[in-house]
Amino acid sequence: MKIILLKEVKRLGREGDIVEVKDGYARNYLIPYGFAWRANKESLKKFEELKKRKEKILERKRKLALKLKERLEKVSLTLQVEAKEDEVLYGSIGEVQIREALKEEGIEIEKDKIKLEEPIKKLGVYKVEIALEKDINAFVRVWVVKK
Q: What is the per-residue pLDDT across 73-105, written as a single tens digit (0 to 9) for each?
């Protein structure tokens, strides 16, 4: 049976590929679980429309991410914390604290999008990477100062 893959399937193909598989595999697994459609004129046309809609949504997401990147690059966060004499913090600053500081600026970011190699443990100025989309990253300046 010829099918159109709607999602990538290991050892079979990528999204959009038209492949030949055994009837049972298609009827009992791929089609019911939403991995594929039967390959015919209707489904090819339907798949093309679906593909165009996905592209429009992705383009919209990219535009929003670029606007957010522009806004984030202008933001400079100041976090006041307790620190010892040798500029070492009592505790550390992680993704949660940075997310809260961004929220105070009116910017909502998910915690897992903030990329810190390790928690901040000293006073100073840091560049924190925020992954907005697949290939769009923004950098926010974070000033860690003593209370």
A: 999 999 999 988 888 898 899 999 999 999 999
What is 65-146's CATH number, 3.40.250.10, 3.40.225.10, 3.40.640.10, 3.10.430.100? 3.10.430.100
Sorted by sequence, the CB contacts under 8 Å of residue 90 that are 6+ apart come out as 81, 82, 83, 84
Instruction: Give the integer Cα–Cα distance in Å for 44 and 98.
Output: 46
The identity of residue 131, as a single letter, is: A
CA distance 60 to 37: 27
DSSP 104-144: HTT----GGGEE-SS-EEESEEEEEEEEEETTEEEEEEEEE
CATH 3.10.430.100 location in the chain: 65-146
Considering only the top CATH level, what class is 2-61? alpha beta
What is the value of pTM for the model shown?
Answer: 0.71
